Amino acid sequence: MTEAIDVRPVEILLVEDNAGDVELAREALRECKLRNNLHAVGDGVEASAFLHRRGSYASRPRPDLIILDLNLPKRDGRDLLREIKEDETLKRIPVVILTSSAAEEDIIRSYSLHANCYVTKPLGLEQFLKVVRSIEDFWFTIVKLPPR
Amino acid sequence: MALLRKALSFTVLLVAGPGLAAQGVQAPEYQVKAVFLFNFAQFVDWPPQVVPDSQAPLIIGILGHDPFGGILDVTVRGERRGPRPFEVRRYQRVEDIKACDILFISQSENDGLEEILLSLKNQPILTVSDSPRFAERGGMIHLVTERNRIRLKINLRAVQAANLTISSKLLRVAEIVGPTGR
Amino acid sequence: MALRDWPIKQKLTAILLLISFLVLLLTSAAFVTYEVVAFRQTTVKNLSTLGRVIAANSTASLAFANRADAKEILSALRAEPHVVAAALYDKDGRLFSSYPADLPGDSLPAAPGRDGYRFDRGYVIGLEPVAEVGSARLGTLYLKSDMKAVSRTLRLSAAIAAGVMGISLLAAYLLAAVLQRRISQPILALAETARAVSTRQDYSVRAPKLGEDELGLLTDAFNQMLGRIEEQNRDLRKLITELERSNKELEQFAYVASHDLQEPLRMVSSYTQLLERRYGDKLDDKGRTFIAYAVDGATRMQRLINDLLEFSRISTRGKPLQPVDVNRVLGAVRGNLSLAIQEVGALVTNDELPTVMADETQLVQLLQNLIGNAIKFHGGERPQVHVSAQGAATEWIFAVRDNGIGIAPEYFERIFVIFQRLHARGEYPGTGIGLAVCRRIVERHGGRIWVESTPGQGSTFFFALSTRNGEQAP
Known about the structure:
The structure holds three protein chains of three kinds. Chain A has helices at residues 19-30, 44-51, 77-86, 104-112, 125-142, and strands at residues 10-15, 36-41, 65-68, 95-99, 117-120. By secondary structure, chain A is an alpha/beta fold. In chain A, 35% of the residues are buried. Chain B is of the alpha/beta class. Chain B contains six helices and ten strands. Chain B has an eight-stranded mixed β-sheet with strand order 3-4-2-5-6-7-8-10. Chain C is built from nine helices and twelve strands. The radius of gyration of chain C is 54 Å and the shape is rod-shaped. Among the domains of chain C are: 3-158, Beta-Lactamase (2-Layer Sandwich); 319-470, 2-Layer Sandwich (Heat Shock Protein 90), CATH 3.30.565. By secondary structure, chain C is an alpha+beta fold. The chains are: A alpha/beta, B alpha/beta, C alpha+beta. Chain B binds chain C through residues 32, 35-36, 38-39, 41-43, 79-83, 149-150, 152, 167, 169-170, 172-174, and chain C through 57, 59-61, 63-66, 69, 132-136, 138.
């Protein structure tokens, strides 16, 4: 019995309040080989609603990867991280922390809350694009993900 | 030996006699006796009333032949007993004696000794002689030559009868004799 | 052990004892001497009395040459055992009678000497004239008495004196041992307090005040001093806490500030570049150049902010100084600069380097900046860098010598100022912070840094650091 190859596009949830960084991420992912859908939400509350498919997000798909910034308005990224990793249905989704902070406490905290990895936003454009592409590449090409 | 010496000296005296006396050379015997005479003065006290004054000379007299020559004069010259200077006088007869403190009676008067003593009785004169048995016969001090030494014999009664006092020190070195003699 | 180093207790007791001993010694000596002198005089007096009595009794014996009597009189001297010899001489000085009977022939003088009593070789010799009162001399009495009575008295006196002295000294010692406490106790209390303070570093102890004399004054002054030290310590601790807090705040501030400044810069830089990417073909060369300048400016600003953060961290993140082996530091720097060294084919050499008091991380930074500069500012020929060190008193003076382009003397001070650059950005890269960081690091270590150079003939950068534990550098 051969496995059906999953050819649907990968769903990526980007939780980022900086519109500029959202645009940059979109720019980066546009050039990716793999077909992908980038869903962007601006704060932790919206993100939670998206993940639980509440309200206007009822029809949204479950993301294959969450890229999460730590410093978010309304609800802090660390809080959201904890929520995701404590939720039975959500905790298997890999969470990549992508933040401007390089502070050790943030790194330790994030891993303690079971973030899958931690990436600091680079200063240059090219580097930023490269990092986003690498994330996508790593998690979808190299790594094995759990089935839906 | 002593006898020989005595005889010798006597002979010398007889021969030399006054001549020698004038020249002053005498036998040691009489030198000693002269010193003794001089020394007696220190051991005898005369009653104060017979001493005219404290400075009066202390007279040593020689009665009879002078056996001393000049020795006695030499011995006493310049000496004093206390304040009293010494003086030597010579007498031939008892009657000549006026003031005398010590009288040496020479052996030349031996025969008339008793009479001499009698006439001097009770006078405060110290009689000394070397005549034989002088003390027994009434004399006060007898100089006895014996074995080269001159001993003293003292008749204390005679001394006391004359109101003289002899120091016990002198008495100690002498033989005390009684008047009757032995 | 010198008298100076004796404990106070011992010193006081010893002084008191010494004084007592000297006083007792003097008193005893005086007393014994007096005793002996008096006794000698008594002996002579007694002998002369005896002599006069015998002489008075011997007058007749001599006057009348009575040897038996003379012998008898002299034999009465048996009663005085100290008379060892006696003799009567006649007035011509010839021996007349002697005592005792068994006396050896030469014990008596041939002729009597001067009248009178005198001491002669441990004997008293007396010559008494024999004469009746006021009359001529009859002879001389010779008496010889030993001094055994005197020596016996002397020994007895000395023994008594010694005994008394011994007892007195013992009493003096006991008294001294007790009384010296009056002096020594306050001193010892003070010394003990000082010791406690210095061993336990506890400035809250106080010395007990045991009187109003000079020691009390000293104790007061000492306690006051301790109080002041305690106070100063408290103030210092408060200050340190304050500074630590302030440091932390500054660090936080610097971090947050630089972090918050970077964010908008990143946006400017990124979007300017994105602009060129997406719409670059719609621009002419000039437009593209404009964008390049904008991007360059933003990038430089980013670097400057980083440099400033790093600069401030020298103090806020500085670690306490510890002994650090500079050879190891150099090894780390070689590793960090390996790429740059390889690229220009630089030669980095060094002498044996010592151990100094330093923050290791910062020392790495310091050497890395200096050696990095030496490599960077090469004049076209192969860069050669040599690191050496020389000891001077309690310092080590390091030298980083290169064969680069050199520096003109009028710039020797300026180059250490932050962001001061001597060259256009195109000639040599860098923000101009490297040497400012070096100076800040060196000054944080309590040292100093300077340069000697001739343009075109390379430069030597010197910096001084303290030796390990303040020891003397060879």
